[in-house]
Amino acid sequence: MRREIPLAITIFVGFLLIFSVFFPPVEDLGENFSLFFDIIAVFAFFLGGGNLVRIHGKKLLKRKPDWAFSIVTLVGFFLMLAAGLFKIGNPGDISSNVTAEGSLFAIMYDNIFKPLGATMYALLAFFVASASYRAFRAKNREATILLSAAFVILLGSTPLGALLTSWMPDSLSILEIPNLAVWILSSPNLAGQRAIIIGIGLGVVSMSLRLILGVERSYLGDEGA
Amino acid sequence: MSRTGIVVFLVVCVLFVVSWVVKAGTGDPEGHYIRDGFLVTFAAFLTLAIMSFMYKDNPYYKFAEHLFVGVSAAYWMCLAFWSTLVGNLVPRISERLSNAFMVPHQPGEYNFFFYIPVILGILLLMRLSPKGGWISRWPLAFIVGTTAGLNFVRYLRSDFINQINSTFLPLAVDWQGFGHFFSNLSLNATGQFVAMFGNCVIFFGVLCGVIYFFFSKEHTGWFGRASRVGIWVLMITFGASFGYTVMGRISLLVGRLTFLLRDWLGIAS
């Protein structure tokens, strides 16, 4: 029961959705199942929140290292949750948008979530620069090609790139760095992306088949073995 | 906490209060100037706290990091609750709840099916229970089955057939004979030669890239040479992706620095 029912659910749902593509009367089944998927995903978000509270609650109660920071996590979590679920400070009624301007939810988003998220990602610029300084050496042909493409794209997005090659005649305009950057993005880069996408597509299709046919059972954990 | 740590903490607190007072003082007297002053100062503090990680891991970074984890978890939960549960589920399963949430009720003959994801969702929450965790595999199986079923067709169409279809481009663009071609031969970015060369690069680049990923045949002879070209194409792709990622991160950094210099310190226009 612990193994057979989940397997049966996967096989049934998978086959049903593939079947619905070829059978127009149940064509909208895929759309409804996507909605079912979204609804279950909401519960997965709740599960994630519950797990977060459980882990940080335990850390706090057992006074584990850095337990004081768990208070920050829990306060931030519950404050944002209350602000969003009860629409605290929302200028409209219950039907108004949760992110309406002036609500506590929007204020917390603008002044906590947004600056933190943007700075976290911005910080990566420094780490990427530092890592590339160490790793980017034109040691062989492949590394040189990678380095040159990155250099042209970076230079092409700055005013310096345009300035350096703006003297080029119209008949050689593809050699202007911004144009070259655009060409790299729209031709060789596209070709490489496409080769990768085709590979991914084939991988996803074969993995889906393995799941639907019940060959792949790792998602069942120990029970699937 | 060490003595230096206490001194730094006190300095940070004093600077925070000073900034709050100054920002509140320069705010709109008819608006929420005390609140706005606090919010701008707090956002600046969080920005600097994250940036302080460049020096080393420290309590201010940990504070900001932990706050981000808590706030972002609740943010996505609330959005999912209002957009999916209230927006899509409630109108289909209950008129009374629809009225309570003030969303238009959507009666339908097969709406009772929408209780299935609710039951599966509740079963998913059983994962938090130490003994009933196994039952959460049922909704997981549903998610896996749905993903597999939908992706099978979706990826086959968009990532396989459509991508191959888009690769078969005309290698002779705007062709009006050799005379016209050679008389207009130039490296103009919008010219015929560049367009033709671009299409050739796309077609043969995809072919060579796919050959590189084909591991069932040994990469020797012409196959190996094509695979080698495939690697070069992939290297250009990785370089371009890297350049693009760096540019994206730098624009975010510029955004944060703009916030600090303009919105917080007010020293840039």
Describe the structure.
The complex is a heterodimer of chains A (225) and B (269). Chain A is built from 8 helices and no strands. By secondary structure, chain A is mainly alpha-helical. By secondary structure, chain B is mainly α. Chain B folds into 3 domains: 3-110, no CATH class; 111-167, no CATH class; 169-264, no CATH class. In chain B, 73% of the residues lie in helices and 0% in strands. Chain B contains 9 helices and no strands. In chain B, helix 1 (3-25) runs antiparallel to helix 2, helix 2 packs across helix 3 (59-93) and helix 5 packs across helix 6. The radius of gyration of chain B is 30 Å and the shape is extended. Classes of the chains: A mainly alpha (225), B mainly alpha (269). At the A-B interface, helix 1, helix 2, helix 3, helix 4 and helix 5 of A face helix 2, helix 3, helix 5, helix 6 and helix 8 of B.
Number of strands of chain B: 0
* SSE-based structural type of chain B: mainly alpha
Average of pLDDT of chain B: 90
Unreliable stretches of chain A, pLDDT < 50, 5 or more residues? none
What oligomeric state best describes the polypeptide chains here?
heterodimer
For the biggest sheet of chain A, the summary is: none
Helix percent of chain A reads: over 70%
Number of helices of chain B: 9
Distance between the termini of chain A: 14 Å
What is the helix/strand order of chain A? HHHHHHHH
Unreliably modeled segments of chain B: none
- Strand/helix succession of chain B: HHHHHHHHH
Give Rg of chain A in angstroms: 26 Å
SSE topology:
The complex is a heterodimer of chains A (about 220) and B (about 270).
Chain A: H1 4-22, H2 29-61, H3 67-85, H4 104-135, H5 141-156, H6 159-164, H7 177-186, H8 188-212
Helix pairs in contact in A: 2-3, 5-7, 7-8
Chain B: H1 3-25, H2 33-51, H3 59-93, H4 95-101, H5 115-125, H6 137-167, H7 178-183, H8 192-212, H9 221-264
